[in-house]
Design a protein that fits this description.
372 residues, alpha/beta, Transcription Regulator spoIIAA, 4-stranded parallel β-sheet, 13 helices, 42% helix, 16% strand
Length: 372
């Protein structure tokens, strides 16, 4: 049976859902439009049919509202279904706030997420989707830390920062860290503290992984104070005062000593980590895919014509417009007809749910930014 694409008509407004904090405002549904749907036929082959109708769930409707340019309606819809505990809705709202640069709302949602699921929330990272480096990003020295954060690695970090001009931002990549020993934690905390006091401009990537690792170490029965202190310093570096103060209280209780004090300083900027496959030849698309910006799909067609494996990086794409879906599917169908494999990776949760609703997961392997 084919999986149709769904489009809400004006005669059937979106179903109301209980709001998380306030009742959702009325949302004008997208204009009814007939589009292609993709699915698996009775002979296990891919089939395409035309259909229109209502989304099957509020999550589907939120994805379609956003794709139709109604970000406000999508936000209200998502806020109303957070209580159901579906993490997909939470990640869609995280990405919506990141795309819109709404860090305050993102941080509040992160706190609620941590309390609800008892796990680390995503870390703030603004998505601009333009693929261009800002002047600050263009003048940046990059320092990558190895898998083991020991005293030697921390000393390399210290020397790298010292060797960088003071007016140049220092980008620190924590993505590869899998182990932290006591000497490394102590020295790294000292390096970050010194950089903060010297008012160095810091950019960090992969810091969520290091935070999660330290949280696991701190939950151990025989946890070490240096691991707690490094986590406190990371919260200070990131400007996360509430998390810092909560951990400081736990630290004082656990070790019966006074914790470090919070300092008002410029927070480090969280930036995109290194690509999962930095040496591949993936096609990098940016911005929005809309009927008015068909050059993006033209890039995809040109790329697919010269590659047997179509690998498309959508990490810098903020939205796929509902009106472009049929054309997007047409390109993918042509690739499959020519015997090519297709992988779409790095896309945000809003795009991922749109792809799922519209059956694009039947045409390509999907590797979203949020794997869960």
């Amino acid at each position: 049976m084919a999986l149709p694409f769904f489009k809400k008509g004006k005669d059937k407004p979106p179903a109301s859902a209980p709001a998380r904090r306030a009742a959702p405002e009325p949302v004008e549904a997208p204009q009814t439009q007939t589009v292609m749907g993709v699915g698996i036929g009775p002979d296990s082959g891919i089939v395409v049919e035309e259909s229109s109708g209502a989304p099957q769930s509020p999550l589907d409707e939120a994805a379609i509202l956003y794709a139709s340019g109604q970000a406000g309606g999508a936000e209200h819809m998502l806020q109303g279904i957070l209580a159901a505990g579906d993490r997909r809705a939470w990640h869609m709202l995280f990405d919506l706030y990141a795309i819109q640069g709404r860090e305050k709302e993102f941080d509040q949602l992160a706190l609620d997420y941590a309390l609800r699921f008892e796990t680390s929330p995503p870390v703030w990272q603004k998505m601009n989707g333009n693929g261009a480096a800002t002047p600050q990003q263009a003048q940046t020295a990059s320092l990558e830390l190895p898998g083991l954060l020991d005293k030697t690695a921390a000393a390399t970090l210290r020397d790298g920062i010292a060797a960088t001009a003071k007016n140049t931002a220092v980008r620190i990549d924590f993505s590869d860290i899998a182990m932290v020993d006591e000497s490394g934690a102590d020295e790294c905390a000292r390096v970050l503290s010194a950089a903060r006091k010297a008012k160095r401009k810091l950019q960090v990537s992969g810091v969520d992984r290091l935070i999660a690792l330290l949280q696991d170490l701190n939950r151990a029965t025989h946890s070490r104070a240096v691991h707690w202190l490094l986590l406190l310093e990371l919260y200070q570096t990131l400007g996360q005062q509430e998390k810092f103060e909560d951990l400081a209280v736990d630290y004082a209780v656990r070790f019966e000593v006074s914790p470090p004090s919070w300092s008002e300083v410029q927070a480090a900027e969280v930036v995109q980590g290194k690509p999962a496959e930095p040496l591949d030849n993936a096609l990098q698309l940016t911005g929005e895919i809309t009927p008015a910006n068909d050059s993006v799909l033209q890039q995809l067609c040109s790329y697919a014509a010269t590659h047997s494996e179509v690998l498309v990086d959508l990490s810098q794409v903020t939205r796929v417009d509902y009106g472009s879906v049929s054309q997007f599917i047409g390109v993918l169908m042509q690739c499959l007809g020519n015997g090519k494999s297709i992988t779409l990776r790095g896309h945000n949760a809003l795009i991922h749910e749109l792809f799922r609703v519209m059956g694009i997961d039947q045409l390509a392997q999907l590797i979203p930014h949020h794997p869960d």
